[in-house]
Please model this.
Amino acid sequence: MHDPVYAAVSILSLIMLLTALKITTERSLERAAKIYALQSFMLVLIFLLMGIFVDHLFLVWSVSGFVTKTVLVPYILIWAIRKIGVKYDSKPLIPEVLEWVLAGLCIGLSFALAAGITGGVSLVPLAVSLSLFLIGLLQIMTRRTTVKQILGLCHFENSSHLTLAFMAPRLPETVEIGMATDVILLVFFGSILTIMVYKQFKTLDTSTLTGLKEVG
Amino acid sequence: MVAPAALVAAIIGVAGAAAAASLAGLGVAEAATLAASVASLILSVFSVVYTRAGTPLLEGELWVDPYSSWMLLLVSLVYVLTALPSIHLTRRGGLRGLRGESYYLLVNSAFAAMFLIAVFNDLFLAWILLEVCTILTVYLVCIRGGGASVEAAWKYFMICAVGMSFSLYGLVTVYSIGASIGVAEPWRWTSLALASGELAARPRSLVAFMFILAGFSVKAGLFPLHFWLPDAYAEAPTPVSVLLAGALTFLPLYVLLRISYLIPPGSMVFSLLLAVAVATILYASAGMLVTRDVKRLLAYSSMEHMGIMAFMIYLVHEGVGSIALLAFAIHSIGHAVAKSAAFVSSGLVEEYRGSRLIDRLAPVYQVDWLVGGSLVAFLLALLGCPPFPLFISELFGAAACGTAATLATYIAVVLAAFAALAYRMVNMLRAHDAHHDAADAAPSGSCPACYRVAVYVAVAALVALTILSPMVGRLAQPLTRWIRGW
Model:
């Protein structure tokens, strides 16, 4: 990859990382979904750059990424949030300061792992991809509302997409189509479940879902 | 001679057509689903008979060999056993109109995807299809609504989605290693399996396989991220429990079996797989002893059998491989039929008694001679009693153990599971003090014809498998053998 392109891709990746941190700590659920749209748009720009300068196959990825992740996924999530009328995230399971510390550790660990894997080539995008994965996991564990947990899964999706671009760039189109379908189904059924959870429990807080304990 | 490719295309085609027809009204959806399931069963029997070599399909995206044909048969049997009780669910279970149609659309789509998984060759395609099946069935788990089913569906959705993300990372790493060592199409199982030696030489492959094991273990309900399974099975409508327990929970293990051919014998991954298998069987045995709910009992029994099949994957590479492969094939199909049928019977017993509590069902044979009696028979099959297929497969499993220590471990865990399920079955048979009133004990209606037919189909399938299973010697061939002829 040319140096200026790599530099641009690295900057866009780092913006993705910042958006991930913001999504995790953002109180407003609708704003979190909009920041996710921004994160996905950065991913689309990365694919666009790679499509122009590295391999034209990535142009297809950028179009499908724009339609699915930048437009449809946030649209479905915001539709669900507005339908149930819950505006804010619940209190996290751990203090927010500790959450920041853990997120910092995730990022440090990701850079160390990426350095080991790549030996320097594509370090930043790969490290960001691993960070997104770990921050997504952290978000699912510490944040209690269903919407935040679905956004955690969306971090996984963006992380996998970024990893695929750098570690498995010549995959057949079927995989790209499959991934795009997967994220839409994931968010659509996740949103339907969110509405059902709210209808049943009058809250989106998953820590209240403790009815199914072993009897006996 | 019928071409395996045509049979596979027809099997997937009929399930896809039934999915499309599901939108034409509930009556059409019911008829199309039933017809598609029966047609797929007939076609898959032909596929088992006529597939004698490995054949690539769709430019190598799919792969049919005798083992994958066997898996088509497994999925089609579960398809029939899901389609029959579905009629009762949509007619009397309140799934009318659009909800009924969307139920059939999702069920048929899930089966079309599962048929594709049975013949996968593209590892990423298998991953995508497993993920899509999970997402489609999440809605099926809670389709009737109610707090408990929504909670179960949420746990199922979230835990499996996280697990599958881990396996995707593992697959991407395997791909990148394959590409770096010059494998021509490093996303295909057939290409990677022929280069397994070079693949294993790269240190990164160990991490990749650990991630894959972790991800597929979650989806197969193995310890320690299994806790979605008893909730989802118990709270889902009966036909959805059949779909999950009979086929969908097992398929990640089948994918794992194929991926295990990329891992070198003696790898730490196999030791970890053994530990996970043993822990799963012991945990499931404890769960079976503790639970008072008949559907949870069957769910823990599923966990136990998934554990036994994970043990068999270990034996394929660390024991007598050919016998272990045969054991895995017989065990998987025997479990699929017996567990599906047990869920069908337990669903009806629940309807009769208005409760899932084992104490309130006892003595189970009083409910209805067919329903109660068949539940006992299917539990005996799941216990691994002779002459059922699981007896044969568990015996083959013991014969496949390579060392005395492995054999001792295998016998110990299988006996622990046997004792736990047998104890609960005796509970169901024993006449308890009459702490439920006479109205509870009396059947509240007749057994619906579709359930009756499902029980007959399951009994016929178990008898046929008992007679025919040991004769399918082709399944004892290493899976990589079929590639070399390509």
Notes: The first helix of chain A runs from residue 3 to 25. Chain A touches chain B at residues 117, 133, 136-137, 140, 146, 149, 153, 156, 160, 163-164, 167-168, 170-172, 174-175, 178-179, 181-182, 185-186, 189-190, 192-193, 196-197, 200-201, 206, 209, 211-212, 214-216 (CB under 8 Å). The helical segments of chain A are 3-25, 29-53, 57-84, 96-118, 123-142, 146-167, 173-201.
